[in-house]
DNA sequence: AGTTTTATTAAACACTGTTCAAATTGGGGG
DNA sequence: CCCCCAATTTGAACAGTGTTTAATAAAACT
């Protein structure tokens, strides 16, 4: 009927991402359909494919924002704590866990979702985010416990996986960060003790 | 045309599970369709719904077998190591990781898949499996480091999550257990040191 | 033999992501 | 000022999904 709308109402990438974010955060990746997003926008399904190659593309454009938020928190943890000792390490770990539990759906979308044809979009963001984590932790680790970097590479990776395991579980519970703050601390202390 | 087959060729739960397992292990939960399973069996899609309420039901009936295999390995780890010290703990952790990496698809199906309407089937199996883990670890922990059980409850849970994080990542890589055995050991040593 | 139960089928329903020819609008060049 | 072209949107279509259901035939029981 109206194959093109007035230019002032034209669809923009930003507007799509806005609505998409809302729906992805509320319902997760699988239960959001391109048709649903288009409907909410008042457009037809096909129009989305003019602005994004596919669902995975639209999705990853959205999560990129979350990754940079996490990056910011890690930088903050580093700059907040004056010297790179044990306290900073504790803060980094805690920041990671807190981010996950205060943004459960985001964390799930960033790290836990894996669909065919999504990897090629999300891998870069993930690697970038881990790099931030690595650099921050490595600096502290070399001060606390002056091992060579080669050994740290593996150690930091294992630490990351451990934190990841913790967060990944509580993502799917309905407990808040505050509810499990003590447990998070126990986890962190376990790792720190193992580090010394 | 032939609304019922000769009794000697009747479809059985076991036969369905056999084919389903094959397909689920090969392609994962999402990429296996009821139509595909039925086709492989030479039956129509609807017939599966006579034997199982839904896809999730069929699926969980299949994973139940994997859970009991894991249970067996944990029991073996306990009975193999003579006394419940640090060595047994190490063996328990290693057994868990090894199981995950030598049965990647199974582990994924058991722990990592979550679909709407699947939880009600899989929760019991998961809890049962964790209970085995808990009892085994608790016994060792009380010997090594005689803390009260109340404290152990949280500690063991956190250990489980940590191991889980490690395995969950490598499930999706194409590295074998042997490839990352050294890294697994590093992870385990980190946890054990934190425990002392 | 007649009746009931059990197992199976095909078709249908309501979804999904994606593609594409067609159609209309807005802007730039002549 | 007008025309054409490029940009943008549409709706139908395709191939797929899990699940439901009436019909149906074989088997089991009486």
Automatic annotation (TrEMBL), chains A, B:
Gene3D superfamilies: Tetracycline Repressor, domain 2. Keywords: DNA-binding. It holds the Pfam family TetR_N. The keyword Nucleotide-binding does not apply. One of its GO terms (molecular function) is transcription cis-regulatory region binding. Residues 10-70 form the HTH tetR-type domain. Residues 33-52 bind DNA. InterPro entries: Homeodomain-like_sf, HTH-type_TetR-like_transc_reg, HTH_TetR. PROSITE patterns: HTH_TETR_2. SUPFAM superfamilies: Homeodomain-like (SSF46689). This is HTH tetR-type domain-containing protein.
């Amino acid at each position: 009927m109206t194959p093109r709308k007035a230019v002032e109402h034209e669809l923009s990438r930003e507007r799509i991402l806005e609505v998409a974010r809302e729906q992805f955060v509320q319902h997760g990746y699988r239960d959001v359909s391109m048709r649903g997003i288009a409907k909410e926008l008042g457009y037809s399904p096909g129009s989305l494919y003019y602005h994004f190659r596919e669902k995975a593309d639209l999705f990853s454009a959205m999560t990129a924002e979350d990754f940079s938020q996490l990056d910011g928190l890690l930088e903050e943890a580093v700059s907040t704590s004056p010297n790179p000792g044990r306290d900073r390490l504790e803060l980094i770990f805690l920041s990671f866990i807190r981010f996950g539990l205060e943004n459960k759906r985001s964390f799930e979308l960033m790290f836990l979702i894996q669909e065919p044809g999504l990897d090629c979009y999300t891998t870069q963001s993930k690697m970038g985010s881990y790099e931030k984590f690595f650099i921050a932790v490595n600096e502290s680790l070399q001060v606390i416990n002056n091992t060579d970097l080669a050994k740290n590479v593996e150690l930091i990776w294992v630490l990351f996986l451990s934190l990841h395991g913790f967060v990944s579980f509580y993502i799917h519970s309905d407990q808040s960060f505050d509810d499990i703050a003590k447990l998070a601390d126990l986890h962190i202390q376990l790792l720190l003790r193992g580090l010394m």
